[in-house]
Specification:
By secondary structure, the protein is an alpha+beta fold. The protein has one domain (about 1-95). The protein has helices spanning about 10-15, 35-45, 60-70, and strands spanning about 1-5, 25-30. Strands 1-2 form a two-stranded parallel ribbon. It is globular, with a radius of gyration of 16 Å. The model has no long low-confidence stretch (mean pLDDT about 80).
Length: about 100
């Protein structure tokens, strides 16, 4: 499930081109309210589990699989979170010392 918050036409064309029954898009007008967009996508999800990556996030299959296995193994757990790695535009991992606050 993807919630599109009024993307540019090029992005919308790309999303329309994805030919997979596993990908559904909720089309929204731009509202500049991430919570509203997340809630709209969450309300339309086909399964009881959802993840909320932003447009600048990369999720690895191993990490997602690990999180799912952890949730399945704990019936009373309702959410999970993980650490993260910061990466540069060419996808090089940044050391904590190279990260500067704005």
């Amino acid at each position: 499930m993807l919630a599109d918050d009024g993307s540019a036409e090029e992005t919308r064309d790309y999303l329309r081109s994805i030919a997979s029954a596993r990908v559904r898009v909720v089309w929204l007008d731009h509202c500049a309210n991430p919570s509203r967009v997340r809630n709209a996508g969450h309300s339309k999800r086909p399964r009881p589990v959802s993840g909320i990556p932003d447009s600048d996030d990369l999720w690895g299959a191993v990490e997602v699989g690990t999180a799912m296995a952890a949730l399945r193994g704990r019936a009373n757990s309702r959410w999970s979170y993980t650490a993260c790695n910061r990466i540069s535009m060419p996808r090089d991992r940044l050391s904590p010392r190279s990260i500067r606050a704005p």
